[in-house]
C-alpha cells in the first residue's frame, strides 16, 4: 500500500479528495473509499511522521506509527485468505485490491466518475498462434495488469558458485553440522533473461481444433499491444519438489535501472500472413 500511494493516480484519487469521501461516508467503518482515503491521509499528510525534537530522548517516545486496522478488516472481510492474520501473497492481494478499486469507482459517488487509478497498471497483450500445418496464423488479445515471469534458474550468472555452495551445504547437513553461519549464495539471474524466456516462441503439440475434432502442433508468441503507465512485474518463485510439494525459489534478480521493452511491441498481422478461418 505504501508503494501504491507513491503514485500520483492514487494520491489524486484518495488523498486530495479525502474530505469528500469522509463527508459522503454514512458508515465510515464499512466504507471502502473512506477507509482508503483515511489510509492515504495517514501515509501522505505528514501528521503521523513528525520529527522528534533534538532535546527529547527518542528512546522514551512512543513509536510514531499508524495501524490501518479498520482498513485491513474491511478489505479482508469478504476474502477467505485476506481476512486472516497469516502472511499472504503480495501479488494476489494487489490484484484483489485493484479489483475492489475498479468496482467502487464504477458504483460509488466520486469527484470524478471517469477517473479510476487502477487503470494505470492495465495493458493489453497480443498472442500470435502459428499453425505450421497450414502456414496460417491467429491473433488473440487479452487484458492484464501484471507482467508474470518465470524464473529461469538455468540463466544464473553464478551457476558454478551456487553448485559448490549447495554441495557444501548438503555435506554439512549430512554430517550434522550447523549451517546457520554459512554465507548464503543465491543464483543471480538478470531480469532480461526472464523477459527473453517469456517472449520466446512456445511450441504446443496438443493444441485442440474443436471444429476438426483433433489436435495439432502450434507455435505461440506473445507481445504487448499496449503498455501501462506503471508495469507491475510478478516473478513466479514457486516450483515443485520431486514429491509435488511446493518449494519457493531463493534467488537474487539483477534489475537494470532502465528497461527497454520496445522489442516486445506487437505489430499485428504482417504482410504475407494468412488468418485462420473458423
UniProtKB/TrEMBL annotation:
GO terms for molecular function: cysteine-type deubiquitinase activity. InterPro entries: Papain-like_cys_pep_sf, Peptidase_C19, Peptidase_C19_UCH, USP. GO terms for biological process: protein deubiquitination. One of its GO terms (cellular component) is nucleus. Residues 1-278 form the USP domain. It comes from the Eukaryota. This is USP domain-containing protein.
Amino acid at each position: 500500500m505504501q508503494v501504491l500511494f507513491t503514485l500520483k493516480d492514487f494520491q489524486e484519487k484518495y488523498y486530495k479528495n479525502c474530505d469528500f469521501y469522509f463527508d459522503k461516508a454514512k458508515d465510515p467503518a464499512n466504507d471502502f473509499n473512506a477507509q482508503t482515503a483515511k489510509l492515504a491521509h495517514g501515509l501522505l499528510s505528514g501528521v503521523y511522521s513528525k520529527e522528534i525534537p533534538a532535546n527529547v530522548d527518542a528512546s522514551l517516545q512512543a513509536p510514531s506509527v499508524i495501524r490501518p486496522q479498520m482498513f485491513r478488516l474491511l478489505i479482508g472481510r469478504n476474502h477467505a485468505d485476506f481476512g486472516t492474520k497469516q502472511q499472504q501473497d503480495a501479488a494476489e492481494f494487489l490484484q484483489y485490491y485493484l479489483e475492489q478499486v475498479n468496482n467502487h469507482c464504477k458504483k460509488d459517488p466520486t469527484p470524478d466518475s471517469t477517473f479510476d487509478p487502477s487503470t494505470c497498471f492495465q495493458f493489453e497483450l497480443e498472442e500470435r498462434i502459428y499453425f505450421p500445418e497450414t502456414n496460417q496464423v491467429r491473433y488473440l488479445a487479452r487484458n492484464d495488469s501484471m507482467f508474470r515471469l518465470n524464473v529461469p534458474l538455468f540463466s544464473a550468472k553464478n551457476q558454478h558458485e551456487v553448485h559448490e555452495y549447495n554441495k557444501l551445504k548438503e555435506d554439512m547437513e549430512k554430517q550434522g553440522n550447523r549451517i546457520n553461519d554459512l554465507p548464503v549464495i543465491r543464483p543471480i539471474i538478470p531480469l532480461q533473461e526472464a523477459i527473453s524466456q517469456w517472449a520466446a516462441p512456445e511450441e504446443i503439440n496438443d493444441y485442440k481444433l474443436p471444429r476438426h475434432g483433433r489436435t495439432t502442433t502450434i507455435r505461440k508468441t506473445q507481445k504487448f499491444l499496449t503498455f501501462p503507465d506503471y508495469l507491475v512485474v510478478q516473478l513466479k518463485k514457486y516450483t515443485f519438489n520431486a514429491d509435488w510439494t511446493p518449494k519457493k525459489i531463493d534467488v537474487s534478480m539483477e534489475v537494470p535501472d532502465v528497461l527497454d521493452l520496445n522489442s516486445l511491441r506487437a505489430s499485428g498481422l504482417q504482410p504475407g500472413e494468412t488468418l485462420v478461418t473458423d
